[in-house]
């Protein structure tokens, strides 16, 4: 009975934590503090609103309980100091950090933004433990005992040994007769996704713009990992030239140089052809920029690359335009004009950190 009470209390605590996260989701997203607290599969979330359990003592009707010699303020044996000091007047601040699985965090994001489940289109062969209990073996737990096969083995043994009596057809299995069902694993097609993040690191993209991209990428990853068992992420940075980099470099590279967006799209297309063929992968390219490009001619080349090569091989192309004091914002206007009515191209305007959640909803809200 005590165990059941503990389980009920734990479930109730998880419900409270989940409710607090939903109430403060916008704050968590805009601050970006969860990114620095993440482990492999969990995130530590500060919950200052939850009161820690504590003992509450009643009045002592019998006076004090101390015994022996001594005066108020005198230190106990083994303690330093004279026992005197100024009492504090400010209340203490107690914050409880709760570990929340990334899977639960993704579900909360999906519920809050009303994100639909994604319908995968690509398959990749991955070994999975899922299967059917079609095999038979001589050992196993009692819950998997195959009664019919066990009875048959016992009957065969008794007939062979001459102990079976048709007038009294009693069959008693022994340990050697036991047969158990076994799980047969198989190659099962599992949906796999590849995310390709592209970011403009030219001189007009500052530290705050890159932090916005970093936060949004964290939440996009969380949702896609909830939807796909196998997710690979690649990173491309570009100014006038594009390069494939690791995650740390992607978010910490200092800005410099001009902007030639087509260099990133060409490198993205090369990655898709070499590593992520559309027959096996669900590919999601995300591009973040402040909207500046070096020439209208390069913008026309970008549109042609997207229309002829990138879009046919990906689930959806997403462009997020981060507001910058030095960016013109023209590139989003050009994309909207060129791909008006095309559901595979989704663009969003990210004015500041408060625009991250609406941007995620516009990117992932179609369930592609």
Overview of the molecule:
The chain is of the alpha/beta class and 368 residues long. The protein folds into 3 domains: 2-50 and 94-113, no CATH class; 128-188, no CATH class; 192-364, von Willebrand factor, type A domain (Rossmann fold, 3-Layer(aba) Sandwich), CATH 3.40.50.410. 35% of the residues lie in helices and 21% in strands. Strands 7-6-5-8-9-10 form a 6-stranded mixed beta sheet, sandwiched between helices. It has a two-stranded antiparallel ribbon with strand order 1-2. It has a two-stranded antiparallel ribbon with strand order 3-4. The protein is flat and about 100 Å long.
Question: Outline of this structure?
Answer:
This protein is of the alpha/beta class. It contains ten helices and ten strands.
Q: What is the fold-level CATH name, i.e. the topology of the largest domain? A: Rossmann fold
Share of residues in strands: 15-25%
- N-to-C SSE string, H for helix and E for strand: HHEEHEHEEHEEHHEHEHEH
Rg calc: 32 Å
Major beta sheet summary: 6 strands, mixed
- What is the strand arrangement across the widest sheet? 7-6-5-8-9-10
What is the count of distinct domains? 3
Q: Residue ranges: pLDDT <50 for 5 or more in a row?
A: none
Q: Give the tally of β-strands.
A: 10
CATH superfamily of the largest domain: von Willebrand factor, type A domain
| CATH top level class name of the largest domain | Alpha Beta
Helix content: 25-40%
Mean pLDDT: 80
Q: Decide which structural class fits the backbone.
A: alpha/beta
What global shape is seen? Answer: flat
Named CATH architecture of the largest domain = 3-Layer(aba) Sandwich
